C-alpha cells in the first residue's frame, strides 16, 4: 500500500513522511486533503455565514408581505367611498343612496382591481416591489371615483361597471415595473450573500 502511495501535489516532504508513518503504525487511512481553488474557500465560508441572515431576511419579507395583503384588501374596499369624502356628504351620498345594494355593487365592481394586486403579493418576493403597481392602480381608482358625478347623467353609473377594464393598462404597467424592481432586489441580495437566488419574489 505504501509503495503505491502517491503524495498529493503541493505537500511538503515532512507532511508526506508523517502521513506514511501514521498509516504504517495505525493501519488506517489518513484523510487526504485536496487542494482548494484559490478563493473558493473564502466564497463558501462567506456564503455559509450569510445564509442564516438571508433566511431571517426572507422571513421578515414574508411577514411584511402578509401585512401588505391586509392593507391592499382594506384600501381597495374603502377607497371608492373614502375618496368621495373629499367632495362632502352629498358626493358620498351618490354612492350610498341605494343602501346596502349600492355599496355591494360598487364594491363588487371595484374588487377585480385590488384582487389583481393581491395576486401579485404571491408572485413578488420583496415588499418594495408592490409600490409601483399599488400607486398606479390605486391612483387611477382614486382619480376615477373622486371625479365620477352620478347626478350629471343617467348613464354615468355605467362608468362604475367599466372600472376594472379601464384599470387594466395601469395595473399591467405597474406590475411590469414591480417585476423589474423585484428582480433587481432579489439579485442584489443574492450577490451580497454569495448565492444566486432562484425564481422571481426587503427594503
Summarize the structure.
This protein is an all-alpha fold and 203 residues long.
Describe this protein's structure:
- By secondary structure, this protein is mostly helical.
- The chain has a domain at 52-193.
- It is 68% helix and 0% strand.
- It has helices at residues 13-26, 40-82, 89-96, 100-120, 131-147, 158-161, 163-193.
- The protein is rod-shaped and about 100 Å long.
- The two termini are 60 Å apart.
- Mean pLDDT is 74; it is low at 6-10, 28-41, 50-58 and 192-203.
Give the rounded overall mean pLDDT. Answer: 74
End-to-end separation: 60 Å
Biggest β-sheet: count, sense, barrel? Answer: none
Pairing-aware structural class of the strands and helices? mainly alpha
Number of helices: 7
List the uncertain runs: 6-10, 28-41, 50-58, 192-203
Which percent band covers the strand fraction? under 5%
| Helix and strand pattern | HHHHHHH
Annotation, overall tally of beta strands: 0
**Helicity level:** 55-70%
Shape: rod-shaped
The whole-angstrom Rg is 31 Å
Blueprint (SSEs and pairs):
Elements (H helix, E strand, L loop, with lengths): L12 H14 L13 H43 L6 H8 L3 H21 L10 H17 L10 H4 L1 H31 L10
Key phrases:
about 200 residues; mainly alpha; about 70% helix; about 0% strand
Amino acid at each position: 500500500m505504501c509503495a503505491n502511495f502517491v503524495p498529493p501535489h503541493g505537500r511538503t516532504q515532512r507532511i508526506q513522511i508523517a502521513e506514511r508513518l501514521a498509516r504504517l503504525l495505525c493501519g488506517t487511512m489518513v484523510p487526504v486533503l485536496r487542494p482548494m481553488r484559490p478563493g473558493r474557500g473564502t466564497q463558501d465560508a462567506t456564503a455559509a455565514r450569510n445564509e442564516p441572515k438571508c433566511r431571517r431576511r426572507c422571513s421578515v419579507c414574508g411577514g411584511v408581505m402578509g401585512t401588505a395583503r391586509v392593507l391592499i384588501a382594506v384600501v381597495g374596499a374603502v377607497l371608492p367611498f373614502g375618496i368621495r369624502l373629499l367632495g362632502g356628504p352629498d358626493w358620498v351620498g351618490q354612492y350610498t343612496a341605494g343602501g346596502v345594494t349600492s355599496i355591494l355593487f360598487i364594491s363588487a365592481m371595484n374588487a377585480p382591481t385590488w384582487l389583481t394586486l393581491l395576486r401579485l403579493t404571491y408572485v413578488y418576493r420583496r415588499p418594495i416591489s408592490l409600490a409601483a403597481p399599488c400607486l398606479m392602480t390605486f391612483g387611477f381608482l382614486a382619480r376615477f371615483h373622486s371625479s365620477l358625478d352620478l347626478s350629471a347623467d343617467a348613464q354615468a353609473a355605467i362608468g362604475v361597471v367599466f372600472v376594472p377594464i379601464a384599470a387594466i393598462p395601469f395595473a399591467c404597467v405597474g406590475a411590469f415595473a414591480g417585476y423589474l424592481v423585484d428582480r433587481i432586489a432579489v439579485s442584489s441580495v443574492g450577490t451580497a450573500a454569495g448565492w444566486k437566488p432562484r425564481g422571481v419574489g426587503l427594503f
